[in-house]
Amino acid sequence: MSFLGYAAGKAAFALQARLGFPGGPPVSAAETQGYFMDAAAAQWLAAASGVVGAGVALATVTPLGLRKVPRTVMLVVLAGMLLAVGGGAMIMIVDGFVGIGVGWTWYHGVLGLAVIGLSVEMSRSYAMATRRVAG
């Protein structure tokens, strides 16, 4: 659900052609100058990544994903997602609790901790469910 929430938030901002995330720190017009792509296009791509993330999450828990997707491929995808999601969440955590100037607050930091925990558990549970039993 967190991936779909992310996708919905990004789609909402894409419709407004704004950078940022609903409930997150504001992005000033000065910060968007020189951005390598149109704000709406960037937000639609981010929304799509949230939908893909939700699909990967479903594939880790449904019989179709457990049987049809090669284990090695899925573990590589999960590792990549863990790095990407973990990187964004770490920024929220550090800025929320220490303050690095982005604008995230303490409750965003708590959300970042929860997202990292859920991502680690999703990867761990998939690896355990698909491990080969020796002998």
Structure description:
This protein has 135 residues and is mainly alpha-helical. The protein has helices at 2-15, 29-32, 39-61, 63-68, 71-97, 106-129. Helix 5 (71-97) runs antiparallel to helix 6 (106-129). The model has no long low-confidence stretch (mean pLDDT 87).
Residue share in helices? over 70%
Number of strands: 0
Low-confidence stretches: none
Mean of the pLDDT scores?
87
**What structural category do the secondary elements indicate?**
mainly alpha
Strand portion: under 5%
What is the distance, rounded to the nearest whole angstrom, between the alpha carbons of the first and last residues?
Answer: 38 Å
> SSE string, helix = H, strand = E?
HHHHHH
Radius of gyration (Å): 17 Å
Estimate the global geometry from the Cα principal axes.
globular
What's the oligomerization state?
A: single chain
Spell out the key features of this protein.
135 residues; mainly alpha
In short:
This protein has 135 residues and is an all-alpha fold. The chain has helices spanning 2-15, 29-32, 39-61, 63-68, 71-97, 106-129.
Present the secondary structure layout:
Layout: H1 2-15, H2 29-32, H3 39-61, H4 63-68, H5 71-97, H6 106-129
Helix pairs in contact: 1-3, 5-6
